[in-house]
Amino acid sequence: MTLTQYRAAFLARQVWRDRTRDIADRPLERCENLLGPHRPLTAIRRGDIEALVVRLSSELAPGTVRTTFRHLRSLIRSAMAVRLPARPTIDLLIPTRAELDRLLEAAPPEFRVAIILGAHVGLRAGEA
Fold first, then answer.
1. Are residues 98 and 73 in the same domain?
2. Distance of CA 106 to CAs 101, 103, 112, Å?
3. Cβ-proximal residues to 9 (8 Å cutoff; 6+ apart), any chain
4. From the CB of residue 32, how many other CB atoms can be counted at a distance below 10 Å?
5. What Cα–Cα distance (Å) separates residue 61 from each residue in 68, 74, 103?
6. Do 45 and 62 fall into the same domain?
7. Less CB within 10 Å around the terminal CB: N or C of the chain?
8. How many angstroms separate the CA atoms of 23 and 20, rounded?
9. Residue 9 and residue 69 share a domain
């Protein structure tokens, strides 16, 4: 999602009067223009925000810079607060000693170390 898209969605969700929305929209639009309106939210880094503050500080009064930053911070925090779907739970299957012995007997010699590591150390398949 781009900064432009999220800004529109963010402002639409706020329970604000029209005047309050307009007051918040102007600094966010300024940030959007300086950061790039079609820039994905995931591409905005801390250094980008620091450079934005420096640029704003050269053009605006300190209070305006602070207000602009606060509006942008609220937008970014809102984007980060999205809850992702939970991972499905997976039942852990722990082999018995007899099952482990059968696996070791059936496995090629070069693979037996991976089975032992997985069973005794708890390494995942890719780690082993």
1. no
2. 9, 5, 9
3. 1
4. 20
5. 11, 20, 71
6. yes
7. N
8. 5
9. yes
pLDDT digits (tens, 9 = 90+) for 6-58: 999 999 999 999 999 999 999 999 999 999 989 998 899 999 999 999 999 99
pTM of the model: 0.61
Same domain, 72 and 94: no
Residues 98 and 63 both lie in one domain: no
Note down the domain range covering 106: 88-128
Give the DSSP H/E element, type plus range, for residue 13: helix 3-13
Does 58 lie in the same domain as 11?
yes
Co-location of 75 and 92 in the same domain: no
Q: CA-to-CA distance for 9 and 18, rounded, in angstroms?
A: 15
SS3 1: coil
Residue 54 — φ and ψ, nearest 5°?
-60, -45
pLDDT tens profile 60-119? 999 999 999 999 999 999 988 767 677 777 777 788 899 999 999 999 999 888 888 888
Q: Are residues 64 and 98 in the same domain?
A: no
- pLDDT tens figures, 94-110: 888 999 999 999 999 99
